[in-house]
Amino acid sequence: MKNFSTVGTRFAWTALFAAASAASAAPTVCAFRPDAPDQHLVVKGDTLWDIAGAFLHQPWCWPTVWDMNRDAIANPHWIYPGQMIWLDRAAGRLRLGRPLSPGLYEPAIRTLSPRVRTEALGQDAVPSIPPGAIEPFLTQPLIIEADELAGAPRIVATQQGRVFLGKGDKAYVRGELGGNTAFQVFRPGAPLKDPLTGEVIGHEAFYLGTLKLQAAASASAGGDVHTFTVASAAQEMGKGDQLRAVPPTPLRNYVPHPPARPVEARLVAVYGGVNHAGQHQIVSINRGKLDGLDIGAVLRLYHAGVTVRDSTAGQGWIGRAQQVRLPDEEVGSLFIFRTFKHISYGLIMQATAPVAVGDVARSPE
After folding, report:
1. Which of 113, 132, 105 lies closest to 45, judged by CA?
2. Which of 202-206, 289-293, 358-362 has the weakest average pLDDT?
3. If we measure between CA atoms, which residue out of 20, 52, 24 comes closest to residue 36?
4. pLDDT value at residue 144
5. How far apart are the C-alpha atoms of 136 and 1, rounded to whole Å?
6. For residue 123, what is the enclosing H or E element?
7. Cα(317)–Cα(167) distance, rounded to whole angstroms?
8. pTM reported for the whole predicted model
């Protein structure tokens, strides 16, 4: 997490995106592309975002033109390589199957046993976005929110007083475990501040490894120290480092969709030790679960309009030229893949200009 950058300007990068920025105005939301194919054979390596983009101007419109309910949107394990998606132009819908005649289609039915089908969900289902771009960020505690930091258990001593712990070493921990036995170890880093309010909404967290509970503290003996064993060590860990329960394995397949309610956010940080972000780079924003964001939500990215002096206007009564705010400029789209209460991680799916801290992310109109 130390690679997050919250400073810098855009420099001359904008020139690299000039051609893309010159594209025509955005088409009507949720309209099919005029060059949309009649059908698409799903192949290994496809993503839902790519498939949706082949048919629609805006990939996040997928749920609008598909027969899905909200539950299906949240966990869509139903598209596999070898299936056919075709465009029912008369109905303005996308179907899964094979067209038989105008207005008729043959549904794609997978004749698999329940056991094989369950196994296939994780192995064969088409992912929403390129999975390799977000794998390290799905479970590691890269952001720790303030309330989580305050009550986190901590390492108070090490085996034989060692400065650093390695795999198999013992660690002695104080704090409430909440019935959990597996924990991630992290070290709090720099605070993350809301670009608008300046309020600290979380902290960077350096992921150090994992601990497994060996023996809980014995209340009968008057002790409050738990004994842990180091299960894995990504970096050196030791006295003072803190613990967080290992989260459940996340579902990784979500249809792109607009948030359930309007959201307006600002970029808090860019991951990777750089000042700017482009396509398939990761950023954090200052809105999360409590603001209506869920996994798979898509936001549009904008450069916030700056305030400039209008030298063409007449002088005001105080003798100053008028100040005007320029419109926000759309520069891309953001796919939310992990949410906390007040912060979310997103993968930039398209970018026509470099994205930087303070830029705007809001719901598609």
Report:
1. 132
2. 202-206
3. 52
4. 82
5. 11
6. helix 114-123
7. 72
8. 0.72
Q: Phi/psi of residue 362, each to 5°?
A: -140, 165
Q: pLDDT tens digits, residue range 89-116? A: 888 888 887 555 555 555 544 433 333 3
DSSP calls for 159-212: GGG-SSB-TT-EEEEES--TT--EEEEEEEEEEEE-TTT--EEEEEEEEEEEEE
3-state helix, strand, coil in the chain (%, to 5): 15, 35, 50
Under DSSP, is residue 85 helix (H, G, I), strand (E, B) or coil?
strand
**How far are the Cα atoms of 41, 82, 96, 351 from residue 110, in angstroms, in the given order?**
15, 10, 12, 37
- Average pLDDT for residues 134-153, to the nearest whole number? 77
Amino acid at 188: P
Q: Which domains does the chain have, with CATH numbers?
A: 31-135 (no CATH), 140-245 (no CATH), 264-362 (2.40.10.410)
List pLDDT tens digits, range 42-95: 888 888 888 989 999 888 888 888 866 666 656 656 788 888 898 988 888 888
Partners of 56 in the beta sheet?
32
Which residue is listed with tokens 């926000």? 328
Cβ(99)–Cβ(105) under 8 Å? yes
Distance CA 83, CA 76 (A): 14
